[in-house]
Automatic annotation (TrEMBL):
The keyword Transmembrane helix applies. The chain crosses the membrane at residues 6-26, 33-49, 61-86. This is TrkA family protein. It comes from Sediminibacterium goheungense. It comes from the Bacteria.
Amino acid sequence: MNFKRVKPFIFPVLIVSVFIFAILGFRADLGEKFNFWGVLFTIFNYFIMNDADPVEVSGNPFLLIAKYLAAVLVGYGLFSLSFRFLRRLFFSYRIRFSFSDHIIIFSLDPIAKSIAEQLLSAGYKVVIVENDEENPSIEEVEEMGGIIITASPFEKKTLDMIGLSKARICILAHTEDITNIQIADKISSYAYQFHLNEDRRGHDVLKIFMHIDEFENIDVIKDYFDINNADEHYDLHAFSINQLAAQKVYDAYAPHQYFTPQSGEECSIAIIGCNKTTEFFLLENIILSHYAGKKSLKIYLVDKDVETFYHDFHYQYPFCDEYVELIPVKLLNANFFANFAWSKLHIEKLAEVNAAYFFGESDSVVVSTAAAFRQFIYSQTLAISQTPLIITLPEDSGIYNFLNENDMHKDEVENMFKTSLNMHYVRRQSDTFSGKSLIEESEMTDSLSRVINFYYSVSYEFGYLLKEEFKVADASNLIAELVSFIEHYPLQHTVVTETALENDFITFLSVKTGIDKQALQRHCTIKKRWNLLNNRKKDSNRYAARNLSVKQFMMQQIGCWPVNREQILKFYPALASIEHKRWSAEKMVFNFKYGPFPADKKERTVLKEVLKIHDQLIPYDKLTEEEKGKDLNLFLLMPLLFALKQHSKL
């Protein structure tokens, strides 16, 4: 029997039972003297234990039962009140003293519940703050091992209770954007007021994932929230499920994985189905899909309403044609039937794409569309599995899990699609919110991003930093040595980690300058330089880190292999120009525009950090030699980044 389902009826049943037995007892005891209102008053006294004479009721079982039930009712009520308090107190002390690196999730709304289930299934310690004590998901999540704190997320005592000082990540995933924003504001204020950065010594800065449904809200938050983050209390990362899903699809099934070795071939993909995830996937390609020796990636957009989507996308991102070639193709029917009504060119080109990606809002529609497109390709090429199909399921019905997770035929459908038909499925929520995606891959990307930022900081900021903080007058030669130390680090160490790199760098800098290590660690660590960045700069480094696989493919294609300093300098113009194009695309997506910088440093900072003006959003050949060097630097760092990435897989 499910106690939680019975619990709401216990109190009413006990109360009614007390009245029934008491009335029966008094009627038998008093006979004609029975008075309903007097009896009613006496019964009410039972509940405050105002009548406990055992002699009076010893001969009347009905009154004895009534008094016992009243006592049980009072005792049960007191127990319930104290149990709730003691339970919360127990969880509070358990979290404070035995939890570390746990995940805190605010709410059990559908997205939050999905995240909690994925993380609990992967073995993570998860604490959920849910304001609604009657939320039907509480019992299910508790059975999976989650700790539920039923309290307001806006109260200080709640934030004290959940162990923010030792948490790994906070995830704000209410359905309403405004609620998530308000909780983020509360946590950030709490972090400042109670110096959370000091309490978290030995831990990374608290990472806050905030789900935002409206992309315009994400843009505003990333552009203007925490423009100059110099306090290091937290790292706020706003995301939408559609954006994370698009990034998951790109990282797992990037177009370059399906290009053939010929350097002069046309590179093209088809995107079938236009929705918000499609929009984000297009942005991923605009920022990341750039290849030396190849023309811009061709993207065939196929949908019954493609004209509307195409024009809306161009309205929002009018610069997109500078980086990819979008070709709208109107889908005439759901089954790719009677395709003779299309132009012959479209039929031929769609049949020759390197990969096809499917998006939509219905599992069954997306699966059926992918099957119909496979039929279309076979009719054109007689190849059953040559072109890979990547299908993103919105998980609106659970039909894929029904087909694939049957105990008698577990994984048979997925394996058949993958091996026989070259069809790969990505579940928009389950795969995106898995522990591997949300925690492990995210942390690996951030580690690479921090090292990239540190390298550029050493190259272009440490001269000023050493002069201002440590009175090092002329550090130009020292900076060259520090840059060389980082670039050659993987050649001198068999095991490369972020922590080891930082420790060895601080030791090297201390030896070179005579400055105490502890003093250097206050200003010169990898995480210190990272925590000073605003949201947009962090995202910029993350894109650079996620672009590594594309760079590796590109360098192999043009013959710049193996990756070493000599090869990179040999192919310098081709590599640097393509990185500048990628960087420019990223900045345009981030709402930057071109404009010259004034001489005044403060005005320059306002233009760059607030107004989103940048003076290097120009063609590569118009850059100065120093500016061109910045595009080359990332390639010189690649041996170290490859070593870091390789070690993380061990």
